[in-house]
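Researcher: Good morning. I'm working through a list of sequences from a screen, and I'd like to move beyond sequence-only analysis. For each chain I'm collecting a predicted structure so we can compare shapes side by side. This is the next one on the list. No need for commentary yet; just the structure.
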Amino acid sequence: MKNNKKWLQTALKVGAVVSAAALVLSGCSADQKEAEANQSKPELTPVTLMLNWTPNSHHAGIYYAKERGLYKDAGIDLKIIEPGADLGADHAVARGRVEFGISQAESLLPARAEGFDVTTIATILKDNDSGLLALKSSGIMADPKSLENKTYAGFGGALETEIISKLVECGGGDPSTVKFVDVGNVDALAAMEQKRFDTTWVFEGWSGVEAKLKGKDVATVNFSDHKNCIPNWYTPIIVTSDKLIKENSDLVKRFMEATSKGYDAVVKDPDAGSAALLKLAPELDEKLVYEAGRYYAPKFKQQGKFGEMAAEDWTPFTEFLVKAGMLKDNKALEGAWTNDFIVK
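Model: Good morning. Structure tokens for this chain:
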């Protein structure tokens, strides 16, 4: 019996040592496998994207792709930043401060005319969703002629004057009766209720939706409803530099593949895109984000493929800017856009 006890004690001791050794070996094996797995993973490339404004539902596909790890799957560590007070996406991209940016055709073309290296690789929306917002109590309706003798508040841009004047003229009104005031960034609804001005330029799917959520009785003059009068143009757009395209086209390709996957997913599930946007930008109004997300989702692939552009939109808009005196000629259009990175 004593011998049996001794044998059992010895066996237990030996078993404990063997088990401990096995644990150490298995631990080493696991650590080795993890190290090998990490070594096999491609190193992430740091990439910065500058927005055109604060985060909003235009950017839902990008935020979805970032939150769901689609950029990391493409080997990209994406950082999203907002534009500075004196530095927008066009200039930031051209100066190499960021790899990609969100811009708009009306700023990209003049920037190119000034020699800045910036080009468009995708549009987020096929049709311009911007327009004029007004309280119905102002007398403004969907008919552009109703803008006669009204006060428009904006940023003092030449395009604003040209677009609104042309709309009023096409509606059979007198553009000279419209008063233009420069107010910059203000709470438009509050200012209109205070009768400081009658109308201002907004994106229907964001500010228009916000006004309705607040229960305001508003009217809109949507630019896309008047293509027989004013040209359609791409806004917002995704931009990069020709330099980056030439030196690292693979990075541009991977960025666009991940971005397209993000927008494809948002089209199928708008609320998932809104949830991702809110997770990474929690300061936004939740109800507005979800409503705007549902509004925009069907528009992200309206042309069939996310981001795809056409000369039929770029050329008339460029000619419009030339006639408005915002461009000397149409040379800025050469190389201003490409569909080479649109996911087939």
